[in-house]
Amino acid sequence: MTATSVPLQPWDAHNRRLHAHVAPGDWKNPVPAKRYNLVVIGGGTAGLVTAAGAAGLGAKVALIERHLLGGDCLNVGCVPSKALIRAARAAAEARQAKAFGVRIAGEITVDFPAVMERMRRLRADLSPHDSAARFRELGVDVFLGEGKFTGSDTLAVGGQTLRFARAAIATGARASAPPIKGLGEVPYLTNETVFSLTTLPRRLLVVGAGPIGCEMAQAFARFGSQVTLVESAAGILPREDREAAVILRAALERDGVRLLCDGKDLTVARAAEGGVRWQLIAGTTRHDEAADQLLVAVGRAANVEGLGLDVAGVAFGKKGVEVNDRLQTTNSRIFACGDVCSRFQFTHAADFMARIVIQNALFFGRKRASALTIPWATYTSPEVAHVGLTPAEAKNNGVAIDTFTQPLAKVDRAILDGEDEGFVRIHVRQGTDEILGATIVAAHAGDLIGEISLAMTHRIGLGAIGAAIHPYPTQAEAIRKVGDLYNRTRLTPTVQRLFSKWLAWQRR
């Protein structure tokens, strides 16, 4: 109940193979057990982790999915998007090879149908991990169909009733249409349909300069589309460090993305020649142009409809299912995890929320979602990754911080790689080395941020990171260098005077 209901297109061998794993047409739902320890509704990341983990601990588990197992991540999210991003990066690297003394004869072109075919093939290759057959082998009763609560401890699917001691709602979220005038009258793409393209759009309008919008705008520009990226805010990535956003904006523009920030009064209509006609005021300029495809990359809505939540006594609203810090709903038997109840709509967040549900629902645990340290990354070139507090959040919470920044322009490996745009920036509680947050802008920032997340989770201070040997030359050395910056602050004038006197005494 997490992935799009849009059919997989094109219906080629790869999508047929994917479908056979995550929504097999010949699947027969099992006869329900007398009572389940846990019934999980939704087969995306949160639901799959909950079901597999609980079954592995000996629980009798049922898993219900109405569309495609694997949810957004496998089918219309992380997996297909990163396949496209990698192909786009390959094209960019080929075009930039001359800077490294590598000559490539002829024009660099992108075979877009081949790019999309590779994505579909790899997605199908990964699908057995999320397949109905695999979860049956793990001991989970898999039910394919619409699940709906019929009482406080019962749920119906496919004409059968499932009784449970505990249940977990993991139905995720979906793309939702923002209030754009005329949007309901034109065809448009979302993250749920863009991966069905087989022809590269010559002109692509992307609405929304958040992570999805920036990632897809850069990728399609690198493929050869004329991309216009529209954002109602003054800049891109509004949640991120402003210097990070400035660096990424320059990178997008170098790749050919035209940015129209602070856009107002966007309207769209069908173009006479096909595609979309769009109008927008950006600054003092009014634009009236056409695009072959429109990608809407803003707006998410929790999947709460048709679940019978009222019957089950589960409160919900516009932001999804209401839960307490232990991920328990207003029905004490029922928990929720993942995008349906969290502001952190990331696969890794859903994974660790599911682990909390297993402990709290089955073993009287007291694990708290607020205790999770959740990093995130935008997979552009360069990548932008963050974890913990931002300076603005620290200020709003009355937390005084010290900030240490290491530019990549002073990191040898970044210079040698030609990837010296960016920085590692770490915030600590003022006067201490307790790490409260960090932002990294680098080619592989998503990989690097894990070290900071580890340090925060296990309360390892910035000084200790500075004392840990990192291989040279690596870009990760930038993190150690930030630790050095902190450690230098410990050499106060008083300490320096004492050192000077001691060293002078040694010279006598």
Characterization of the model:
Helix 1 runs parallel beside helix 5. Strand 1, helix 2 and strand 2 form a beta-alpha-beta unit. The chain is globular. 34% of the residues lie in helices and 23% in strands. It contains 16 helices and 23 strands. It folds into 3 domains: 234 residues, FAD/NAD(P)-binding domain (3-Layer(bba) Sandwich), CATH 3.50.50; 116 residues, FAD/NAD(P)-binding domain, CATH 3.50.50; 108 residues, FAD/NAD-linked reductase, C-terminal dimerisation domain (Enolase-like, domain 1, 2-Layer Sandwich), CATH 3.30.390. Strands 1, 2, 3, 4, 5, 6 and 18 form a 7-stranded mixed beta sheet that branches. Strands 19-20-23-22-21 form a 5-stranded antiparallel beta sheet, with helices on both faces. The mean pLDDT is 95. The longest helix has 18 residues. The protein is of the alpha/beta class and 508 residues long. The relative contact order is 0.11.
